[in-house]
Design goal:
By secondary structure, the protein is α+β, with helices and mostly antiparallel strands. It has a domain of 92 residues: 2-Layer Sandwich (Translation Initiation Factor IF3). It has four helices and four strands. Strands 1-2-4-3 form a four-stranded mixed sheet, with helices on both faces. It is elongated, with a radius of gyration of 27 Å. The chain starts with 40 loop residues before the first helix and ends in a 6-residue tail after the last strand. The relative contact order is 0.17.
């Protein structure tokens, strides 16, 4: 079996078949824009909190229903470290749940946590606090 090289041609590829791109043809990766630095707690406190009506509160509590607690408050109660953790979680998620471990006064602890973390207290169910703070864009 001999083939004539001048008449031999490659079969055409199917148009939907994927082929690898030559490294020469690949454009260099474009750099992603840098993420803005998250605000510190003091900078966040300079922004006013939104005033939510009953319908908005109900809708946000409904959205929080499927969430798991992001921050867990231990036996020592609400400390600076817990407030900082809540602030960082709010910077990332806007709507979070915080689980408290058997506080003496649940309502007072929830209100203190919300005011110190500069968030809106949406509700308290059992030992779980629902907090909301919209993303602050500089």
């Amino acid at each position: 079996m001999t083939r004539k090289t001048e008449n031999f041609s490659r079969p055409t590829r199917h148009p939907l078949r994927k082929t690898r791109q030559s490294p020469i043809d690949v454009p260099p990766k474009a750099r992603r824009p840098a993420r803005p630095k998250p605000l510190t707690l003091e900078e966040a406190r300079a922004w006013p909190l939104p005033v939510l009506n009953g319908n908005e509160r109900t809708r946000l509590r409904g959205e929080a229903h499927s969430l798991k607690p992001v921050v867990i408050v231990g036996e020592n109660g609400v400390s600076e470290g817990v407030i900082q953790a809540v602030h960082e979680a709010l910077c990332q998620h806007e709507l979070i749940k915080v689980r408290m471990h058997d506080p003496e006064d649940k309502q007072a602890a929830a209100e203190y946590l919300a005011t110190e973390a500069h968030a809106v207290l949406l509700g308290l169910r059992g030992h779980t606090v629902i907090l909301f703070r919209p993303t602050l864009k500089v």
